[in-house]
Amino acid sequence: MKFSYLKSTIGKKQVMAVAGLLLAGFVLTHMLGNMLLFVGADMYNLYSYKLISNPLIYLAEAGLVAFFLSHIVMGIVLSIRNKSSRQKSYAVAASGEKKASWSSRFMIHQGMVIAVFVVLHLLTFKFADKQQTTVDGVVMDDLHQLVVDVFQSPVYVIGYVIAVGLLAFHLSHGVHSALSTLGFYSEEKKSKIECLSAIYGWVVGLGFMSQPIYVYLFY
Amino acid sequence: MAEKTISLKLKVWRQKDAKSEGGFEDYSLDSVSTDMSFLEMMDVLNDKLILEGKEPVNFDHDCREGICGMCSMVINGNPHGPQTATTTCQLHMRKFKDGDTIYIEPFRATAFPVVKDLVVDRSSFDRIQQAGGYISVNTGAAQDANAIPVPKPDADEAFEAATCIGCGACVASCKNASAMLFVSAKVSQYALLPQGQPERKDRAKKMLAKMEEEGFGACSNTGSCSAACPKEISLSTIARMNREIFK
User: Fold this and answer.
1) C-alpha dist (Å) from residue A134 to A43, A60, A141
2) For the segment B17-27, what is each residue's pLDDT rounded down to a tens digit?
3) pLDDT of B154 strictly over 80
4) Confidence (pLDDT) at B1
5) Could you say which residues from 118 to 147 on chain B have a Cβ atom under 8 Å away from some Cβ of chain A?
6) Total structural domains in chain B?
7) Choosing among B102, B167, B176, B213, which should be mutated to test the A contact, i.e. which has the most A CBs within 10 A?
8) How far apart are the first and last CA of chain B?
9) CATH of the domain at B210
10) Quick check: helix, strand or coil at residue A218?
């Protein structure tokens, strides 16, 4: 019975936790950057231009792909194993204090929706044809116009709000679960960690939600 | 004061043996005293079944004092029933209402195969314990306890972890049928005490590897294990186990 870190469930979960926390950091910065939508079209486009014209963006994107893939692969591998650990489910679901939170019970399902959303999101905004605009004499993609055009569709706005809502639930459990998996958890810090995790998830989720709703209502 | 009684509809899992399919059977029970424990109610049901010439329901039990960890059962979806910090034997019928329908199922996990009816084989826990849940003690007279200083907080935490009775409710409640709370309680108990240090480096790794070999799932930190635990073992033991892997 030889122990292998990466073959063990704890090893896989710790890889998933590190990747998950880095992705959590990414979505927060992404949400904050997108808040420039409220400042104005030029500022939003300039931010986007500065970001994609930086040569380090390729390294950052490669890192993001690696984090996404390792998080998703470990999540799927662990979920398959977990599914086989109980072949027959209970006739009645747990209730009261013995019932786990909704977000913690459906992490893989939230993750699957978020993964599909990320692909659609990239196709819609990153890989779509964009008009050009000039800011301070520099020609750049008019990402702001694309965002405004896309968010005129109520179907897209509703879909976006649902997806980032699921992201909020995913982060609410995911952040404190990742910290526990990495060993940062104690009975004294329990309520603080869980509370901060929920706040983190909903700050990111509500921040993202505010953007399409603002565009839909005010453009 | 007159004794209060209730009538119940029971849906009890019946399974002939490990290979049989199994299913729920309906029973009615009248005049159940609310002072009875859940297991006493099951005894009354079995007396009734025996008088009717039917086979009684098989279920595990031993001390009936909440300390041996033998009783199990998932009652209306909750391991050991709706009350927290309680074993099935310490659950009383006053927690139920007249006319209630109660679903009674075995602990369900691949690593806890059903032996018969509500009895499951929890020997996988013994094998995990044998893989690393021990300390080396030399023969001869025990030295004075005070010769080995143990800080009070460490002693308290080790004691809390050691209150695990190995009932398996953590596995039964976990959506992944993970045994992490059980294993981490055993790992914590030894990791915090001087006597546990000689095997500390390998203990968590060996017990985790055995847990996985037995077919238990991974931990998702949902907290349902700790909520179902009759001894209220803390999730912080799982965090410690996650750290112990690097010792």
Assistant:
1) 12, 26, 8
2) 999 999 999 99
3) yes
4) 60
5) 131
6) 2
7) B176
8) 60
9) 1.10.1060.10
10) helix
